[in-house]
């Protein structure tokens, strides 16, 4: 075996190493740090190449590529969305991602992103919550208790001061799983029998359900004044969670309108319905919540810059650690024009 | 460390394993087999989702994602193009690729593709040559003696009956490298001092140079009747190799016109200049070479289906071998909704 050069070896973070890294840093601490990276990157929004993700739809689900670049680093995520997978014992969403150096085009990081996407999605939600939720919010309704739910609860605890979560899912086993996982994490956990029960007294409502259809998780009469809605689950064409009337009563905030109008809750609205880009709130160019009775809605679909932030965070975090392994992924002959010679010498 | 399930483990072919596989099969044999896969996939052209590749341009080069799917498998390639890299001791082009199962969205193969791209590019060139080159062609001019050149020469030997190659490069060291690498491969190799000398007596002219600019490797008066031109190097906006007058005298064949009009030699022509899609020649729906004096031109830029074919070939070829290693790339908890529980149990 030939020894590949350093340039040919791409640091790879396996699922196992990602989990070790999370425990090394701490779940809430890591979510908070990723959120800080996202905040910092969203505040320089205009320095990024942005494009709606590139989907490959099939009757079974969707496979997407989400690239972006700030001119120095390039990142992309591969992610699938297959709601029917759960019934077959598979993940609805799996992902991996890559960072590369724009100057050379050489990859600099390959990492699992199923776990990392859960962390960055929770980080984004709570970061936006910290800008939009009512002051002194203490209770969150968590509707949909699947793979993302615990991460959401912990993120809002760490970043928005939530001390009570009220859980609801159409499947009681999912609620029981979520409640059990959140024991001894410093949260009061209430398992609820109905969505109405779950939102009782909540200042923040997070919806995160997975059906690929236009569902109505929240109806208009369920949502009182002053709440912040964090709508995560509606994230592709034909997949929404909220009744249209709620949208009409809400001040709507989005990541990247060009993508959200295709994939988010606002599919149900006119194409020119006013929305606010959340990065403008972060930089102070737009207002967030302006009064106590306002309903704020974060219509979140997930955007490539969040993955870029998470990838850069991981690249920094693994430096000097053993939470990665070098992957022999790039052919790198001594003479770059002599790829064939490299092949022959390997014999 | 937790033991990930089979579904979480993606077969990974490193550069080292790819080179072992090539030697196991044989270079010319493997190029020929990949060409057969490409031929078979091009003949079912209409069953593929096709899109021009998604580029991220910078002043230093380009990074591209090239996805495609036939509804059952999904594949994409990451590839960079940085002509300035060579002067810094790096590859102009590096690549890796992935196959996934459309039904689950789960990746099924990750592989280096720097070496594999060289093989599939040569396979595509010689496959098209087998449809378009004049009968009984025996001599090929190889202009540009970089990383792709030896693969091109061997492919045309294996698939088109070439027994003599005439090499030219502006850098004599590149020609010397190519000539040395082709010793004892059953080819008569002639190192030439000028492009005019190289094309002397050649029935096939392959151009494969790397400058990112509109260069004129061939001028009109250099190209006589009856030759087949295999133009590889012009493959992004502003990067061409042939004088426009040659194009006007040629019958032009392309992979995917939507992409070639942006990236190929035909950038220099009107947007409605007639070209023939090569898959139509393969299926018999369009004519290839129709007379001995015709100049045929394959304006090749590389297309995603070629990579898809190469990826599927590798996936089949590694079955039952040890030319890959399982990569712990996908989080796959026993209960798909219990990603957080998987994380906690890993502690």
TrEMBL record, chains A, B:
InterPro entries for this protein: NAD(P)-bd_dom_sf (IPR036291), ODC_Mu_crystall (IPR003462), ODC_N (IPR023401)
Highest taxon in the source lineage: Bacteria
Gene3D superfamilies: NAD(P)-binding Rossmann-like Domain, ornithine cyclodeaminase, domain 1
Signal peptide residue numbers: none
Protein name: Ornithine cyclodeaminase
């Amino acid at each position: 075996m030939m020894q590949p050069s350093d340039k040919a070896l791409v640091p790879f973070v396996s699922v196992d190493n990602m989990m070790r890294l999370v425990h090394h840093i701490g779940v809430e601490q890591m979510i908070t740090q990723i959120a800080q990276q996202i905040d910092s990157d969203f505040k320089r929004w205009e320095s990024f190449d942005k494009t709606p993700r590139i989907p490959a739809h099939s009757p079974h689900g969707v496979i997407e590529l989400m690239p972006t670049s700030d001119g120095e680093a390039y990142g992309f995520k591969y992610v699938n969305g297959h709601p029917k997978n759960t019934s077959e014992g598979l993940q609805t969403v799996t992902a991996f991602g890559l960072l590369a150096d724009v100057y050379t085009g050489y990859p600099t990081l390959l990492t699992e992103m199923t776990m990392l996407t859960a962390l960055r999605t929770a980080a984004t939600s709570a970061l936006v919550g910290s800008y939009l939720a009512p002051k002194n919010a203490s209770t969150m309704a968590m509707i949909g208790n699947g793979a993302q739910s615990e991460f959401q609860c912990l993120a809002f605890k760490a970043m928005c001061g939530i001390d009570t979560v009220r859980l609801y899912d159409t499947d009681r086993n999912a609620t029981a799983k979520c409640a059990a996982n959140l024991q001894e994490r410093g949260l009061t956990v209430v398992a609820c029998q109905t969505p109405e029960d779950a939102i009782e007294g909540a200042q923040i409502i997070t919806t995160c359900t997975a059906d690929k259809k236009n569902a109505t998780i929240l109806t208009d009469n369920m949502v009182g004044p002053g709440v912040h809605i964090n709508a995560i689950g509606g994230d592709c064409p034909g997949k929404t969670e909220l009744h249209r009337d709620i949208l009409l009563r809400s001040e709507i905030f989005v990541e990247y309108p060009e993508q959200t109008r295709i994939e988010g809750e606002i599919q149900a609205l006119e194409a020119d319905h006013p929305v606010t880009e959340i990065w403008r709130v972060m930089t102070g160019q737009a207002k967030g919540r302006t009064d106590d009775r306002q309903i704020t809605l974060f219509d979140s679909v997930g955007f490539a810059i969040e993955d870029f932030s998470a990838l850069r965070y991981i690249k920094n975090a693994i430096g000097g650690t053993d939470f990665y392994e070098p992957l022999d992924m790039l052919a790198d002959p001594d003479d770059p024009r002599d790829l064939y010679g490299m092949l022959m010498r390997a014999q």
